[in-house]
Amino acid sequence: MALRNNRLTNEEYDEHFSDIHPPFETHNAALVEANRCLFCYDAPCTKSCPTSINVPKFIKQITTENLKGAAYTIFSANIMGGGCSKVCPVEKLCEGACVYNLMEEAPIPIAKLQRYATERAIHEKWPLFTRQASNGKKVAVIGAGPAGLSCAHALSREGVEVTIYEKEGKGGGLMTYGIAAYKVTPQFCQEEVDYITSLGGIHVLYNMQLGKDVLLETLQQEYDAVYLAFGVGMARQLAISGEQLNGVVDAIRFIYEIRTKGYPEVPVGESVAVIGLGMTAIDAATQAMRLGAKEVTLVYRRTEAEMPCTAAELNIAKLDGCNIIWLAAPKEIVGENGHVKTLVCEVMRLDERKLPVGTGELISLNVDMVIKATGQLPYTMAAPKIDNEHGRVLINEHAATNLPGVFAGGDCVNGGKEVVDAVQAGKEGAKAILKYLFREVE
Predict the structure, then answer these.
(1) Are 89 and 310 in contact (CB under 8 A)?
(2) Fewest CB within 10 angstroms: 209, 228, 317, 380, which?
(3) Which range marks the domain in which residue 322 is found?
(4) What is the DSSP annotation of 382-398?
(5) Which of the residue ranges 103-107, 248-252, 387-391 would you say has the lowest mean pLDDT?
């Protein structure tokens, strides 16, 4: 067993990484589903959306052939509504709240309808928003991910000049670099970033990292306000013997390389163990299978009832042929000639508080690759004067940090949630910054 790349043909890669949730093939197919909507009063689907998209309204607009109106309704609430339609865990949000679930019928395919409206708007570059005249205010945004882009767009619409400092070579953040390629393509991510910035008044400076290429103190002097949206960093360490062996990789780095290098260039083992069962773990496991691994096993220290991923995500892994071992925690990684050979796990049990407790019983997996997906750590604070809790930026109810004129939101504050949560944080940050800039009193 050994890690190697280029395991499959180009045709196999294309097949394995094709769109897992294909769009409607025809306009009539979209209309059929849209016309099923009951257009509920005080709609539970809207209430369950972190960005409060008016779902019945945009679906009604689709039924009346007003696709531009539908796209505007979506983007007004969530400027990344296109990407969110592909990656949101809708089964626990809008579609999970659909009243059809109570009738034991299939819920309205809200995400698919949202994609139907937004994809066309993005591809055809519909100019749905008009930017107000420049008001002379300047804001720096750190990070061109969902929170940063959302904040920048909301500010620019009000006439604020925004400069985004992004440490990577492309924008989109997690959407571009941290999500399975079969959910959203890099090409679409670029189109979405271009669409958002096409409003005007948003300038993105790439390969600019806070604390290295630009200092917070400098930004505070040059701009009227600063919004921190730099996300979170790499996966947590397992803190076990053998973690430094060749073949032990970080899930975020593994997915990052798939997104940046291309499928044939990323090495994968024949027998792979993935530690964790969150969304990132599922993405890593399924993509390892799709890169040509013969066997992939997800190892999780709790039971299915406690898993952080959704049932729909778990089903993707099962359909791809991934195995799952419940109630097991990594104990040691054994190597041979510097390479991973065996993953030793301890069998766990849950105590009365549902916390995993070791039983002393050990099991061994013969693997040549271990992917760590046990949650992400905050970045080391590039601006140590900012109050933080174990690396997470602390903010008040107005998204403000302890430094005057410095605001924050998204994963760098909450430690890592859904893309849609980051978009909402960006909206809230923009609202707070506008009040600060113009000294509005509540």
Answers:
(1) yes
(2) 380
(3) 248-372
(4) SSTTS-EETTEEP--TT
(5) 387-391
